[in-house]
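Case study.
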Amino acid sequence: MTADKTTSAPIVRFAPSPTGYLHIGGARTALFNWLYARGRGGKFLLRIEDTDRERNNEAAVAAILDGLKWLELDWDGEAVSQFARGDRHRAIADELLARGAAYHCYCSPSEIEAAREQAKAEGRPQIFLSPWRDRDPKDAPTDIKPVVRLKAARDGETIVNDHVQGRVVFPNKDLDDLIIVRSDGNPTYNLAVVVDDHDMGITQVVRGVDHLTNTARQTQIYLGMHWTVPEFAHVPLIHGPDGAKLSKRHGAQAVQDYRAMGYLPVALRNYLVRLGWSHGDDEIISTEQLLEWFDIDGIGKSAARFDFKKLEDLNGHYIRHSSDDELVTRLIDLLPEIEGGTTIDAKIDAAMRAKLVRAMPSMKERAKTLLELIDGAQFLFSARPIARDEKAEKILDADARATLKALHTRFTAVTEWTSTALEDEVRSYSEETGAKLGKVAQPLRAALTGRAVSPPVFDVLDVLGREESLARIADCVT
RNA sequence: GCUCCCUUCGUCUAUCGGUUAGGACGCGAGAUUUUCAUUCUUGAAAGAGGGGUUCGAUUCCCCUAGGGAGCGCCA
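After joint prediction, the assembly is written out as follows.
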């Protein structure tokens, strides 16, 4: 889509319904909108589609805003409440009524349901054709509150020229008359979305394909009001690894779930944007590059499966390339959200934070998520005598303990407690005794960290410090 | 059932009719290495099926199969 199609900068929006958290598919839609607007000096607006009062939920709104903030997708101005604009929507409904483009329908929900059932039984399309479309309003019952329906065209076809889906043609006979105002007087989503997009000056509507059929029906509202129809881009859905619609079963739908799993926002954005969009063979793309390169016309039509392995790989890359300080900040921020995190959080003071920062260079090389980073830092959090896992115990046999005893003596004599000095010490010990370096390093690792796997032992010695290191080694000797 | 959409390695994708069908994740092998990881080298792996159009189809058209979305006084 070329920016000069509309003479000014684009105005796009993300319009979630407050029925739950920010879904990962919604997050990608928001990302696409954000990239498009920010990359072209346009506006990215946020609107909460809360016309259904029974489903409105303040916690859900908060969760959605929280998710967007975490993903670092900032929007322009305040989030707009669709419900708050109800008067405006009703005014438009009245105008459509006055123009003969809409009518009152007195059918009850049960009548409609029965008609649908019958249509289904007879193998006909399950669309409801209201008898009130052509009936004389004078016949209207006085004891029933009607809904307002759009008087949609019955002949011809409605064409949606979509930037992703292409030219999609819907026969009008398959489109029924949308309810635009409920019997309780509240406008429905289908009316509100059109009025709001129009009033907000939205130039490109980028949303999920599940809205495609609605678009055809909504187009008739634009036509009825003689409004300019915006450009559309309906992006495909994201499926779970098994190809089915992403659901609770797949473990993670909400962006907050991904935060809790230790993913970085920049990694999730990079992963998400590549689901459906690409720029040649580029895989790791900085946000700056994305802003420059992203284009709606480059989005593919087919649905994509979510691949956690690839996300993990990208996350590992971004962790390795993050600054030590940023990682420690994110790691600490994550603690309240994870199991057992508060216990660790209580141990974080300035000294611990400094240790973490110093340990980061060697730790971030070996972590794919912040969770792994936290797990890898356990040796810093544990107090003596430290717990050892099975593999560590196995390493610490009699020979290993003898080696540790010798090392303890040597380390005590070391004047400069640095990783290089200690490494020299260990290397000379292994040369003198003829023991392989691994035979010396593993017992050390087990004694210092309680595990068979850790960052390089000399870095561990360094970060732990002389006193703590010697004490942990001594714990294994006696 | 009706309408619409989709279909290249297991997964995400590149290819704007002519390529040994490329890259990435994952997987296999090897190198580096104090563990793990990183890094590097390397291997296996794809055009759903059938018809057309064309000198030539992964690419354009049609059919079939499979998958998805929609068909609410939800959004």
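Observations recorded in class. The first helix of chain A runs from residue 24 to 39. Chain A has a mean pLDDT of 92. We will return to this complex in the next lecture.
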